[in-house]
Every structure is written in C-alpha cells, then in structure tokens.
Amino acid sequence: MLKAWATFLLALAGIYIIDQNIKAIFLAGWRWESPCISLTLVFNKGVAFSMFAFLGPYLKWIQLGLLAGVLGYIIHGKYLQRHSLPLGILFGAGISNIADRFMHGGVVDYVHWHCGFDFAVFNFADVMIDTAVAWLLIESFFFKKK
C-alpha cells in the first residue's frame, strides 16, 4: 500500500507542478498565435465551456468538497492500490485547477483551438484530467481485476 501512496502522491505533485509552471508562463504575459491555435491567457470562471459560472465564488468550495469526497471514496473502496497512477494524475490536475480559482479567481486557460471550428479554451490540467479518466475507464472495462 505504501508503493501505491507514493505513486499517487508523486503523480499528483508532478502534474500540479508542471501545470502551475506552464500557467505561470502565460500569467507573465507570453502569447502565441497561429491560424489554428492561439495560446493566450483566459480566466474561466465556470467549469467546462464556462458552465456553472453563475455559482461564482462558491464553485471552488463545491469542487473542493467533491474532490475530497472522491478521495474518501477511493481510499475506502481500496481503489488506490490498483489505480494509483491515473488517480494521482487526476487529483494533481484537479487540485491545480481548484488552486487557480483561489489564487486568480478562475481557472487559467490558454489553449484555444479555432481551425475549422471554435473549441473551448483549455489547459494542461484539463488534458491530464481527460487522460486520467480515459485511463481509468480502460482499466475498469478491459482489464478487470482477477
């Protein structure tokens, strides 16, 4: 179990540090434009596609509570032993985005895809959340515990 906790905490810390350092570059003023992708600073006050922005300052507390509840669930259900790496990635990214809400009033987003269609603005943590969820689904459905 110690190995699972170490993997979880190292993945969490690694993703958090990488994401916050990338965001610091954009907070310092760096920008880049191309015909398909714009790398520019945006503060997202809501969740995906700015949904629930009307919750304002309560959103960060709701998300923090949800993350704590999920952590309790995975510890109680002993899921950490089997899924420590993707869960560490998921929690590191989630904590990084929630920390943005406390530090900057919204999530620091910076990747805007606009080649052929406009897509939501997102960040590294969002990509890591999607990756971790896909990883967990694949492990759960295709690699069942024996």
TrEMBL record:
Catalytically driven reaction(s): Release of signal peptides from bacterial membrane prolipoproteins. Hydrolyzes -Xaa-Yaa-Zaa-|-(S,diacylglyceryl)Cys-, in which Xaa is hydrophobic (preferably Leu), and Yaa (Ala or Ser) and Zaa (Gly or Ala) have small, neutral side chains
Pathway in which this enzyme or protein is active: Protein modification; lipoprotein biosynthesis (signal peptide cleavage)
Enzyme Commission number(s): 3.4.23.36
Active site: D109, D126
Main location class: membrane
Transmembrane annotation, as ranges: 48-75, 87-107, 119-138
Annotated localization: Cell membrane
Record keyword Protease present: yes
Top-level EC class as recorded in UniProt: hydrolase
Key words, A-Z: Aspartyl protease, Cell membrane, Hydrolase, Lipoprotein, Membrane, Protease, Transmembrane, Transmembrane helix
Topology term for the membrane: Multi-pass membrane protein
KW Cell membrane (keyword) present: yes
Domain of life: Bacteria
Family indicated by similarity: Belongs to the peptidase A8 family.
Protein's UniProt name: Lipoprotein signal peptidase
Gene: lspA
